[in-house]
Specification:
By secondary structure, the protein is an alpha/beta fold. The chain has 25 helices and 26 strands. The strands form 7 sheets. Strands 11-16-15-14-12-13 form a 6-stranded mixed β-sheet, sandwiched between helices. Strands 4-3-2-1-10 form a 5-stranded parallel β-sheet. The radius of gyration is 27 Å and the shape is globular. The structure holds 1-deoxynojirimycin.
Length: 777
């Protein structure tokens, strides 16, 4: 039968496509180019490029404008370079430029590439747009706490729009490293401990950054990072190596990468870490077998900054030439900022160690990405639109909603919160109480919009109250951060003892004078993120002292945490009635915190990590295996004699101002055939007094099999909005994707015919349970 409607539709699509193609055969921005068209253009370019120009495309040149003293402090972390960036571009020695956000400079460099270089290949401008550009959104760990992929997608779309307004066209995100050790500073940059939640966030971030496809106007190309296993750094020390068995790599660390790749991410960044004794940026197994062969990645790989050169530092490559050889042959297409490719690949080809075909193979996906992005046709940002994009008030609105949704209410004894707006006096105390810098978090960019501090947010909420503030404590990094050196931020001088005492006394006095205390404690922004690991999870500085002194006044206290990782709040959990984890909430952070504290927004966030009681418990995660003596509350002393093995707050946990009740867990059948699926349903009721969202979570456990499987694993979640008294049935489908795992026995993904447990509820300790069996007949 002829389907006229779909034929007409097809004809229109063909017509539109033809129309979209310019006379050069190039697609208009936003329209997909066919594989054949792209291949033909790449081939034509390669046929005209010199070896030197090809190697140029494999090189990303750093554009940090460093002062002599910064250079000195950084030592040989960055390569010396006597050639100006403009000359590199003019000579065709740069495929990309790194670390500039200066729109005029970006435009000028692109102009050099398009008008003055022989091949006229546009540049990629790469920058870490991690949680916002002008408008700063909550840090990624916080965004994961929203369990809201649509929100994440929308926030990254705004970030992409703002960054692309100044000419940045490449971001180094999403960062999808699974992190189960809160000491590791970079836990803040990812989605936490869980591969399923991590995959959902990864997908959403890629869609937000890139849009439907590469080349969508106002979007940027993403780079999923750090491939792979970086979050498992031993001891939580940044850059340390890790030993990860293949089954853990495939079942835990790779799923978020797979999700990003399936969502079409254009580039992948190779990690710094030494994985199973082979540095990731020279690791063929990672970059060829896993990434290209198994995960089907077809874009290009960029190394992390200096990671190509540092293959020598690792004690892996003999010298820079060896480093270039090993990185290129392992599968790194582009060398980030170390100039090792630019300085060594040509001689490797001349000596016959590398072939031109190997170089062509490395260049091809870079050109492909540039073509798919429509960069040849649209190399410049529209500067006339920049200011209105960067100051769009809608962006701030979204940032406020995002911050509200990401906060996790950890404790709320006797409905301590929300506070009454009729309060006559409030003391907002703590070293972070009035900080607009720290509230932005680890990748708060220089050019970010002014952020709202907690004090400002509370003042705006209570215009008629007396709102006092005092620091009460001092907060410093012991060793300066690498990032601070790069951005020229001088470490503050620590307060002398007598002044510290004075600050503490002032804070206690302010607490005594107030009806209620909002105590804002946590970490400086540079205490989490890159090169910001900590051996202790205690509240840094003298904050624990401050906390205890303020609580001792007997005044009602709510603790608000600004931080990028779980901290030791065991004492607070016993002595403070309300604890709000606000993470680093970004530009609108102070307003959003006040919204939650005073009940204008209902807390909805859920922990994306298990929250340890003490640093000695890490690494800690809920999806561990059983042991010969399974833990429970009665026999915990077998595992540690001094603390329970359970976390202080479990993965997936978070309170609301309303209560949700779960009932009636139903399965559509007791068995399913391999490859088949069954439906799981549960009733959720809002049994409290106000509207709110609950994140309904589904966990599975395979009881026996070719290998031991985790006690439970998240395999589904849905945010569900309910009015007071409203009841909804939430449905999940469980099938092959949810039941399969990579088995080290068969070295393949398997779905085993076994008995399974299922739990559904509001966190990873959900108790409503059912079971089913996968059976061949
Ligand atoms: C090093 C970091 O590891 C990586 O995440 C970042 O994208 C690059 N530097 C570029 O800034």
């Amino acid at each position: 039968m002829i389907n006229t409607r779909s034929n007409t539709h097809r004809a229109i699509v063909v017509l539109l496509l033809t129309f979209a193609l310019s006379s050069s055969g190039a697609p208009a921005q936003g329209s997909p180019a066919s594989g054949e068209q792209v291949n033909a253009r790449v081939k034509a370019l390669l046929s005209r490029m010199s070896l030197h120009e090809k190697i140029g495309q494999l090189s990303q040149v750093g554009a940090l404008d460093l002062k002599p003293d910064q250079r000195k402090e950084l030592g040989d972390l960055l390569p010396e370079d006597s050639v100006s960036i403009e000359d590199h571009v003019r000579r065709g020695e740069a495929g990309s430029i790194l670390w500039t956000t200066d729109s005029a400079f970006i435009r000028a460099l692109q102009h050099v590439a398009m008008e003055e270089s022989r091949m006229k290949i546009p540049l990629l401008f790469g920058f870490d747009v991690i949680h916002g550009f002008r408008t700063i959104f909550p840090v990624p760990l916080a965004m994961a706490a929203s369990w809201d992929p649509d929100l994440v997608e929308n926030a990254q779309a705004v970030a992409a729009q703002e960054a692309s307004a100044v000419g940045i066209n490449w971001t180094f995100g999403p960062m999808v490293d699974i992190a189960r050790d809160a000491r590791w500073g970079r836990i803040v940059e990812g989605a936490g401990e869980d591969p399923f939640l991590g995959a959902a966030m990864a997908r959403a971030e890629v869609r937000g950054f890139q849009g439907q496809q590469l080349g969508t106007p106002g979007r940027v190309v993403g780079s999923v990072k750090h491939f792979a296993g970086y979050g498992a750094a031993q001891g939580g020390r940044d850059y340390d190596g890790a030993y990860i068995p293949e089954e853990q790599l495939r079942n835990v660390y790779l799923p978020p990468f797979k999700a990003a790749i399936d969502a079409g991410v254009g580039t992948v960044m190779s990690a710094y870490l030494d994985l199973n004794d082979v540095p990731a940026s020279g690791n063929r197994f990672l970059l060829r077998d896993l990434l290209r062969r198994d995960l089907g990645f077809t874009g290009f790989v960029v190394s992390d900054a200096m990671a190509v050169r540092d293959l020598q530092t690792h004690g892996f490559a003999r010298d820079p030439q060896d480093a270039a050889f090993r990185s290129l042959t392992a599968g790194v297409n582009m060398d980030m900022a170390s100039l090792t490719y630019l300085r060594n690949l040509e001689s490797l080809v001349q000596s016959g160690k590398l072939s031109v075909t190997q170089i062509d193979d490395a260049v091809r996906p870079i050109l492909e990405v540039k073509i798919r992005m429509g960069l040849f046709e649209h190399p410049y940002a529209d500067s006339s639109a920049a200011e209105s994009i960067l100051t769009d008030p809608e962006h701030l609105k979204l940032a406020r909603v995002a911050a509200q949704r990401t906060m996790v209410l950890l404790r709320n004894e006797d409905s301590f919160l929300p506070l009454k707006k009729a309060l006559a006096s409030v003391a907002v105390i703590g070293p972070l109480a009035d900080s607009e810098k720290e509230i932005q978090g680890s990748w708060g960019v220089e050019k970010a919009a002014k952020a709202v501090s907690v004090l400002e947010g509370v003042r705006a909420k209570l215009p008629n109250a007396r709102v006092e503030s005092a620091k009460g404590a001092d907060l410093q990094r012991k060793y300066p951060s690498l990032v601070d050196i790069v951005f020229g931020i001088k470490p503050a001088v620590p307060l002398p003892e007598d002044q510290l005492k004075n600050e503490l006394d002032k804070a206690v006095d302010a607490a005594r004078r107030a009806d209620t205390v909002v105590l804002v404690l946590g970490e400086l922004a540079n205490m989490s993120g890159e090169a910001a690991s900590r051996a202790s999870l205690d509240l840094p500085g003298n904050q624990q002292h401050l906390l205890e002194a303020v609580v001792a006044t007997g005044k009602p206290v709510v603790l608000v945490l600004l931080n990028g990782r779980p901290l030791n709040i065991s004492w607070a959990t016993e002595h403070v009635p309300a604890i709000l984890e606000a993470w680093f909430p970004g530009t609108e952070g102070g307003n959003a915190i006040a919204d939650i504290l005073f009940g204008d927004a209902n807390p909805e966030g859920k922990l994306p990590v298990s929250w340890p009681r003490t640093v000695g418990q890490v690494p800690i995660y809920y999806a561990h295996n059983l042991t010969h003596q399974p833990e429970n509350d009665k026999n915990f002393t077998s595992r540690y004699l001094d603390v329970p093995t359970s976390p202080l707050y479990p993965f997936g946990y978070g309170l609301s101002y309303t209560q949700f009740a779960f009932s009636n867990l139903q399965l559509s059948g007791a068995t399913l055939a391999p490859g088949g699926s069954l439906q799981v349903s549960i009733d959720v009721e809002n049994a409290g007094g106000r509207s709110g969202n609950e994140v309904v979570q589904l966990y599975l456990h395979q009881r026996a099999g070719s290998v031991s499987r985790p006690v439970r694993e998240l395999k589904g979640f849905q945010r569900t909005f309910l009015h007071p008294g409203e009841k909804k049935t939430v449905r999940f489908t469980v099938g092959k994707d949810e039941l399969s795992f990579w088995s080290p026995e068969s070295k393949a993904w398997v779905e085993e015919s076994e008995e399974f447990d299922v739990w559904v509820g509001g966190d990873s300790t959900a108790s409503l349970h059912a079971s089913f069996r996968v059976a061949s007949e």
